[in-house]
Design goal:
two-stranded antiparallel sheet, 75% helix, 146 residues, mainly alpha, 3% strand, 5 helices, elongated
Length: 146
């Protein structure tokens, strides 16, 4: 059980780093898109990146709290689940705001369902790995006491 816990926590950190990179790039892209929309006087094309930033920071905070708090790991798990729900809502809104459009070069632009799942909703694996790691650690702790 300790091995499962260690593997789950390692996968949690790996997926967190990968998705933090994705979310950071998305925030930078949104800010760039907003700058272009403002300069071309299209205020309806401006998208607020704050909810995406809040969900990303909340997930990072959840993982840090999960790692630091040995006795109350459930707090980190709960925060991670809340963050995953925020990211789901943000991803659905991003999909609505930036629909897929086929360009003249034949390449699709916008956020397809696969892009939304891979880039934004995929961060939901972090609380799953976190939960597996926590439960496996609890079971191993119980076995060592008995």
């Amino acid at each position: 059980m300790r091995t499962l816990s260690t593997i789950s926590k390692t996968l949690m950190w790996i997926s967190l780093v990968i998705y933090l990179l994705f979310q950071t790039l998305a925030i930078i892209s949104l800010m760039d898109n907003n700058a272009h929309a403002i300069s071309s006087e299209q205020p309806d094309k401006v998208y607020d990146p704050v909810p995406l930033l809040i969900g990303t920071v909340l997930m990072l905070l959840a993982v840090i709290m999960f790692t630091i708090m040995k006795r109350r790991r459930y707090i980190g798990v709960i925060l991670a689940v809340i963050s995953a729900l925020v990211m789901l809502v943000v991803a659905l809104d991003l999909g609505r705001t930036f629909p897929v459009v086929i360009g003249t070069d034949g390449m699709d632009k916008g956020l397809s369902t696969w892009k939304l799942i891979w880039r934004h909703i995929g961060i939901a694996v972090v609380p799953i790995f976190m939960l597996f790691g926590w439960l496996a650690e609890r079971k191993a702790d119980r076995k060592s006491v008995v």
